[in-house]
């Protein structure tokens, strides 16, 4: 039997959504900046790996009873094994963000990345994606100088995001195991998976140059933002759901587009603005019926 969902105030949910969104938007901008503006290129796989380490340390800090970890992680091997799948998918997704943002403009990436929303919907239930697809293709109307590999990287990140998000929410909400235990289980796998990425992709070069080659305070900020963003994402999914998480995407697009204008002197074309507006409207339209259904079922429960 599942325990009754923990009640938190609307204000707390709003706070988590806002922090998650602002952190996500800042992360994309700073990541892009470190990949394009600094002269020495750090190994991006090490940043993804360090993010998992930071998140594990913070998650451990959230628990006051360390004995519990032994019981929940070590003794319940089957439960821990479940988290291996989203952790692998997130490891891939997080590495792809670096590949994509090394070459795609931050705003274009952010908007295209929102394809994760219909993707999430696809994994959850059917939804018409035409409006969003229309918007995204308008945004990308002017042929970009992106090679197929960077578009592919974004596509992989999009597919991973939808799948892993729904998978994690299902695992989290189908048992009474706490969020922090679930996170610890996933980040342990995450450390293993992303370390695999470090060795396979950059192992030889790291032996020559060192693990922290090219690290600047800004790169550390990228790791910190990725960690904070991930932890807030997990809290948001716990107290709301993947749909509410998608809502904040509209705000993220606007934020990162505005920031891009200042930082990279990006000039917005009318087509870009129309495309972005379409994307935002579709996010809104998508979330609305879901929210109403949810309210209805809440009312039913009250009766
Ligand atoms: O863009 P999206 O919302 O799918 O990104 C989710 C991010 O949050 C990923 O970087 C993933 O590693 C992180 N995450 C996390 N802990 C969770 C769920 C997601 O760190 N429980």
Coarse structural class: mainly alpha
Bound molecules: cytidine-5'-monophosphate
Please state the average pLDDT score.
80
Order of helices and strands: HHHHHHHHHHHHH
Overall domain count:
1
Q: Helix amount, in percent?
A: over 70%
**Percent of residues in β-strands:** under 5%
The total count of strands amounts to 0
Could you please describe the fold and organization of this structure?
The protein has one domain. Helices cover 79% and strands 0% of the residues. The chain contains 13 helices and no strands. Helix 1 (10-36) runs antiparallel to helix 11 (217-239), helix 2 crosses helix 11 (217-239) and helix 5 (84-101) crosses helix 10. The longest helix has 33 residues, at 270-302. The chain starts with 9 loop residues before the first helix and ends with a helix. The structure holds cytidine-5'-monophosphate (C5P). Cytidine-5'-monophosphate binds at residues 55, 90, 94, 116, 161, 165, 168, 183, 186, 230, 233-234.
